[in-house]
Design brief:
single chain, alpha/beta, 8-stranded mixed sheet, 7-stranded mixed sheet
């Protein structure tokens, strides 16, 4: 019995497995099937008359020697399925296939004399009688040719059997027609001709060419042509630099004159929006028709240089399109395709995070096809220094994705692998990885010299013919195409490139050129501080609120939720006062939903809320059945989705950001468990949220909720790193706010969906203020005609404004500490001004409020909880000084390398001192 079978399996398990095997031999693990096949034969031998040998399914008698031979046959088949990929000739630079001793005749347990033995087993060729020699040769053709298959790690028997069936039937498929093979050749020639044209016309310019990896185009075109047959309508893509220009030109059919313009000295990228970006970062969207006449939309996402950062963005965009097309069950219409480099796929942690999203309810997109352009090098680093795994794709086994390794110089095999990947994804809604093993003809870029670090590899590549050359020669030798036809194809493609180049030259001479022809850039209206009325009639709010505190009558709530949480909200609705932060949020969400606007909230533990404040999902205390009040407001309403995310920041924020790009009518909020956890998503913030509008004309209205406030919880639970966001602010690229009242939170959330422009919103949300007795609002604060205030004047003053000699500016939680200190010490000469929205800063409103206090123009103080080198101080200082024409005074913690003290006692001392300083410096 195979070593993987438990030695002392219990009787029940044996019986269960045996009955399953009797019903269908493929329904059990191969090791069990092998055991039962031998077991039945052995039993037949025992009960045979006079010790006669057992018989197989065809009536042939089997001796003990035959039984042993049959077991070796079964094990050999399993060995080829398990490790055949390690003997596959997938490296185009290798002269021969790698040697795998485990698959040698001796290792498999056979002798030369046994090769002509006839065998019949249900595990191969449906039991057809063949010679051992033929079986082994066929298995080598299937598993050790120019494709290597990894699928035996998949636990699901149905999935594994499905793959095995298609893989092993491949050798029976008819050869491609002459027309199909000419098309494959064209797909190889397109990127080769394009790259050579750029190399000649734009000497020394970086283009990150695909040369050596032209098989990528074969994979993409094969997927494109077959997609409509599986119910697909759209492709959402993400990729890094390498091959991007060729993909844009040959796959998305971006106008050649536009591409060439991006290489010219006259290229001015900011004619539409912002500062633009380099050509190999730009995105594009197009519609193409397949040969069968079906139209497919292809969207290539813009991306930065940060490898793999675009992955979650693409997944979010794909899910948004699936929602738009009402394809949220099967998810067959929109296909995410991610193109990776080998070193990045193995090395970037966000890859694992995104793979982990693939089957989660709030983030699944029906499976992604991952195409790895495996150059076998990362910049100058060889695989031996770049990863500990055998393959760059091994991380995909975490989610049991099948992995197909294919020789990039073999377009027929690449096409088969790509079509198999597509069929698998559309059948099982799971990720699949296609590892196209190729090479990089030039260095990291066209100005780099690869022979500095890899001279042997560089020589091998220089001597190696291109994939198109090799395939063209093969077709000519086999009589499929004449050599002259290959030359004609090259000349046709070269002529088209020359025509595009000439068209650009003519345009520039006559009327100039639009550099954003076909661009997906979306110019935004000018940002304005004009108030947007977001308040609602009190009666409507009260009616809405009551629906959110009334679960079904037979729903058994946790006593604390019922008696405290819902009861407090009901009391606020009845009295018109006492609306806390989470209640205001629920009313903001609910009112938007009632208007037909969708709301999506995701993040770690966001259903309950990190601080047990939200409870937007209620659970039956006996059955854990869920009830979501926001999904039950009225028959016709916007869709409310709330998801507890995996323990990730980068992937989840990237996903929600990507979702926001293609769902402008949905309020999309991502919440960090604690504000400083956002550090884990810094690349997404820097490269997308803060700069995408400037670089790519790509607006987003995503909301980031970052719990922030210094309350003695230590360095890792205090700061949402407000200063980092303010450093990224320019050109009205996003909004950053630190609010003090629930009403302000209500209005800013509603305002996010009520203005004609779209900007990301970064909110420093509270912790202790969630239950602070003073941090509450009245129903009238949310009522008809009210709106968000960028700056709040001091509404608690009992002193004549003309007697005020000190203006204390602040934002967020410290306001309540200042208010309490002023009251306790009966200070009459200081007004406290709250800057609720720090960026874009409403300078005009600050000046208007400050003008009410004529005697305080020389004594302005900024008070903050954060250390001096953090928080808003360095951002706000020169802006307020410009208004007052005096030095702005500072009250806050001293400069520090860590956000907060680890000692509660030290925290309390510092907090008391900074509050006192605000009234004395």
């Amino acid at each position: 019995m195979n070593a993987t079978l438990p030695y002392r399996a219990n009787v029940d398990l044996l019986e269960e497995k045996y009955l399953a095997w009797k019903n269908n031999s493929h329904d059990v693990e191969p090791a069990w099937a092998s055991f039962f096949e031998g077991f039945e034969l052995g039993m037949a031998q025992k009960v045979g008359a006079g010790g006669d040998a057992a018989k197989d399914a065809t009536g042939q008698q089997l001796s003990e020697k035959a039984l042993a031979f049959r077991t070796k046959v079964t094990n050999a088949i399993l060995d080829f399925r398990r490790v055949g990929h390690t003997a596959a000739w997938v490296n185009p630079l290798s002269k021969t296939a790698p040697d795998q001793p485990l698959l040698s005749l001796a290792s498999l347990g056979f002798t030369e004399d046994e090769l002509d033995e006839e065998i019949s087993t249900q595990f191969f060729a449906n039991g057809r009688r063949v010679k051992l020699r033929e079986m082994l040769e066929t298995l080598r053709r299937i598993y050790c040719d120019r494709i290597g298959f990894e699928f035996m790690h998949i636990h699901n028997r149905e999935v594994r059997a499905w793959l095995r069936d298609r893989i092993e039937r491949r050798v029976e498929l008819p050869a491609p027609t002459a027309a199909d093979q000419e098309e494959l050749l064209r797909w190889l020639l397109q990127p080769e001709t394009f790259e050579r044209f750029l190399h000649k016309r734009y000497v020394g310019q970086k283009r990150f060419s695909i040369e050596g990896g032209e098989g990528l185009m074969v994979a993409l075109e094969s997927i494109f042509e077959d997609l409509p047959g599986y119910g697909g309508e759209e492709i959402v893509m993400g990729m890094a630099h390498r091959g991007r220009l060729s993909v844009l030109a040959n796959y998305l059919k971006k106008p050649l004159k536009t591409l060439f313009y991006e290489f010219s000295e006259n290229y001015v990228p900011n004619m539409v929006a912002g500062d633009g970006d380099v050509k190999y970062h730009l995105g594009f969207q197009t519609k193409r028709r397949t040969k069968s006449g079906n139209e497919v939309m292809i969207d290539l996402a813009a991306n930065p240089s940060h490898l793999e950062a675009v992955d979650p963005v693409v997944e979010g965009k794909a899910r948004a399109r699936q929602r738009h097309l009402e394809d949220t069950v099967n998810r067959k219409k929109v296909l995410p395709v991610l193109i990776h480099g080998d070193a990045a796929f193995a090395g970037q942690g966000i890859v694992a995070e995104v793979l982990n999203l693939s089957q989660l309810p709030g983030y699944r997109t029906g499976g992604t096809i991952h195409l790895v352009t495996n150059n076998q090098i990362g910049f100058t680093t060889l695989p031996a220094d770049a990863r500990s795994s055998d393959y760059c794709t091994d991380i995909a086994k975490v989610i049991e994705a099948p992995v197909i390794h294919v020789n990039g110089d073999s377009p027929v095999d690449v096409a088969f692998a790509a079509r198999l990947a597509l069929e698998f994804r559309q059948t099982f809604s799971r990720d699949v990885v296609l590892d196209i093993v190729c090479y990089r003809r030039h260095g990291h870029n066209e100005t780099d010299e690869p022979s500095f670090t890899t001279p042997h590899l560089a020589r091998s590549i220089a001597e190696h013919p291109t994939p198109a050359t090799l395939y063209g020669q093969r077709l000519a030798e086999e009589g499929v195409l004449k050599a002259e036809r290959v030359d004609e194809l090259r000349k046709e493609l070269e002529a088209a490139l020359e025509a595009g180049f000439s068209e650009l030259a003519d345009d520039e001479k006559k009327k100039g050129h639009n550099p954003f022809e076909g661009s997906t850039a979306q110019p935004q209206p000018r940002y304005t501080h004009d108030p947007v009325v977001t308040g609602l009639p009190a009666d409507g709010l009260r009616t809405l609120g009551l629906k959110l505190v009334e679960p079904p009558p037979d729903f058994r709530l946790h006593p604390t939720i019922e008696k405290r949480f819902l009861a407090a909200r009901k009391k606020a609705l009845e009295s018109g006062a006492g609306f806390d932060w989470a209640h205001a949020e629920a009313l903001a969400f609910g009112s938007l939903l009632a208007d037909g606007t969708g709301v999506r909230l995701s993040g770690q533990d966001c259903r309950r809320g990190t601080f047990s404040q939200r409870h937007c999902v209620l659970y039956d205390n006996s059955t854990r059945e869920r009830y979501i009040p926001l999904q039950n407001i009225q028959p016709e309403q916007g869709r409310f989705c709330v998801y507890n995310s995996l323990l990730s920041e980068a992937a989840v924020l990237g996903f929600d950001y990507g979702y926001s790009l293609l769902a402008p009518n949905v309020l999309i909020c991502w919440e960090a468990q604690f504000g400083d956890f956002v550090n884990g998503a810094q690349v997404i913030i820097d490269q997308f949220i803060a700069s995408a509008e400037s670089k790519w004309g790509q607006p987003s209205s995503i909301v980031m909720l970052l719990p922030h406030g210094f309350e003695g919880q230590g360095p890792e639970h205090s700061s949402g790193r407000l200063e980092r966001f303010l450093q990224l602010c320019a050109g009205c690229n996003m909004q950053v706010a630190n609010l003090t009242t629930p009403a302000q939170y209500f209005h800013i959330l509603r305002r996010q969906m009520k203005r004609p422009f779209r900007k990301p919103l970064v909110l420093m949300t509270p912790k202790s203020l969630l239950r602070h007795p003073q941090a509450v609002s009245k129903l009238e604060d949310l009522g008809d005609g009210t709106h968000f205030h960028d700056v709040l004047d001091d509404d608690t003053l009992t002193t004549d404004p003309n007697r005020i000699t000190r203006l204390i500016f602040c934002s967020g939680k410290v306001y309540y500490d200042l208010l309490e200190f002023r009251k306790e010490n009966e200070i009459k000469n200081a007004a406290i001004i709250r800057v609720e929205q720090l960026y874009p800063l409403n300078v005009g409103l600050i000046e208007k409020i400050a003008a009410r206090y004529p005697r305080a123009q020389k004594k302005w103080i900024w008070c903050q909880e954060e250390p001096e080198n953090m928080g808003a101080w360095t951002f706000i200082r020169h802006r307020l000084e410009d208004m007052t024409n005096h030095v702005l005074r500072y009250a806050g913690r001293e400069r520090a390398s860590s956000p907060a003290a680890g000692s509660k006692a030290i925290h309390t001392h510092e907090q008391e001192r900074l509050v006192e300083d605000a009234f004395s410096v």
